[in-house]
């Protein structure tokens, strides 16, 4: 009897939380995803304009993504991202291999414009306690 597996998908999502934007790579399946690559249609920067997000190793060299696992990267404060005039339409081609060598791909489009007008409360981060 052959065992069935849910190969799922590898997706790129955007998470908005309290005015912060994150890019999230997720394996939705029950098996590992291998040689995961995310290629963006155009370049863009994050983290106050200091990081070329489309060139992060996470998107170019992810060799193993465990089943049902997500890895997130901080993109930017939404206010800063929009103020710099960064692209609001992100299109990414996600490719990966299944453990038995089958190639998979998905094209994912996000419009970050939906986050521009959302209100949020800025939360203060408590100062770190110093070691005794």
Would you give an account of this structure?
Helices cover 8% and strands 44% of the residues. The chain is mainly beta and 132 residues long. The chain has one domain: Immunoglobulin-like, CATH 2.60.40. It has a four-stranded antiparallel beta sheet. Strand 1 and strand 2 (20-27) form a beta hairpin. The mean pLDDT is 91.
Give keywords.
Immunoglobulin-like, 132 residues, mainly beta, 3-stranded antiparallel sheet
Short recap of the structure:
The protein is mostly beta strands and 132 residues long. It has two helices and nine strands; from the N terminus they run E-E-E-E-E-H-E-E-H-E-E. The protein is globular and about 45 Å long.
């Amino acid at each position: 009897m052959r065992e069935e597996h849910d190969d799922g998908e590898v997706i790129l999502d955007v998470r908005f939380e309290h005015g912060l934007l994150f890019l999230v790579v997720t394996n939705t399946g029950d098996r590992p995803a291998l040689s995961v690559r995310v290629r963006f249609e155009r370049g863009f920067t994050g983290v106050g304009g200091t990081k070329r997000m489309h060139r992060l190793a996470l998107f170019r060299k992810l060799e193993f993504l465990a089943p049902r696992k997500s890895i997130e990267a901080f993109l930017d404060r939404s206010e800063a991202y929009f103020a710099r005039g960064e692209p609001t339409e992100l299109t990414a081609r996600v490719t990966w291999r299944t453990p038995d060598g089958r190639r998979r791909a998905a094209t994912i489009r996000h419009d970050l414009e939906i986050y521009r007008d959302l209100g949020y409360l800025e939360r203060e981060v408590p100062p770190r306690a110093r070691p005794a």
